[in-house]
Write a structure and sequence with these properties.
Helices cover 46% and strands 13% of the residues. By secondary structure, it is of the alpha/beta class. It folds into 2 domains: 39 residues; 184 residues, Rossmann fold. It has a 7-stranded parallel sheet with strand order 4-3-2-1-5-6-7, with helices on both faces. The longest helix has 26 residues. The radius of gyration is 22 Å and the shape is globular.
Length: 239
């Protein structure tokens, strides 16, 4: 038997602690190098998409009989009728409502209903209205994927996961990692969150202009009206 305290192996630790530390350091360096590669590849400007693409975030817990579910389904249907692809987290609740609205409004299959999932181990399967699914093992890569494939973001009421998504998009717009993307928050909960943040953070911890980034609206109809304007501008810039 070897002495573990001296950095040597023991029956319980066939690899010495020193070797474990060295191996972990190598793994960390490899992961960091891979991140650098991903960052470099992600900075390459993609070709212009054929269709305007809207990501809709929202709670997984809202049931089909909820008026909010119906609102989100109508929102997605209206956008699909314009020729937009719809992107969600691919799960139940308001994500399913958006994917359903997309599919119902597109009988000729001219647009895409997309789901970008994360493996949580306890959440339901991909909802039945997702036509193209991407599966991620971590929230980090999943959130990055949303950014890479979207032209606009709509945030419906939701919990911690939805809040994480909203705040990430907000900061990326704040630091100009992404540009000129509509970022629309629907519902009182977001208006109150933005108001709280502004009252708490300005001027010591944030600039007043940062709170002009999110557009808070009271209904999906207001969101649709703003997105129609953005979609029209995008269309007019088409080559």
């Amino acid at each position: 038997m070897k002495n573990e305290a001296n950095g040597q192996s023991s029956p319980c630790f066939p690899v010495s602690l020193t070797e474990q530390t060295m191996s972990y350091d190598i793994v960390q360096e490899a992961v960091f190098s891979l991140w650098q590669v991903v960052n470099g590849l992600s900075s390459i400007q993609p070709p212009r998409r054929d269709r305007y693409r809207v990501t809709i975030f929202g709670s997984a817990r809202i049931t089909r009989d909820s008026p909010l579910y119906q609102d989100v389904r109508r929102l997605a249907s209206e956008l699909t009728t314009l020729g937009c692809d719809i992107v969600t987290g691919g799960g139940p609740g308001l994500m399913e409502a958006a994917n359903e609205g997309s599919v119902l409004a597109d009988p000729l299959d001219r647009t895409k209903s997309i789901g970008i999932r994360v493996d949580l181990g306890f959440e339901q399967e991909v909802n039945p209205f997702v036509e193209e699914v991407f599966q991620h093992q971590t929230f980090f890569s999943r959130l990055h994927h949303f950014v890479l494939v979207s032209d606009a973001f709509v945030v419906m009421p939701g919990g911690i996961g939805t809040t994480l998504e909203a705040l990430m998009i907000w900061q990326l717009l704040q630091v100009r990692s992404i540009h000129n993307m509509p970022f629309i928050l629907v519902g009182d909960m977001w208006t109150e969150l933005v108001q709280w943040a502004e009252q708490t953070m300005v001027p010591q911890m944030a600039d007043a202009v940062d709170f002009e980034i999110p557009v808070c609206v009271g209904s999906v109809d207001e969101a649709i009206a703003r997105l129609k304007i953005s979609h029209q501008a995008w269309t007019e810039c088409s080559p």
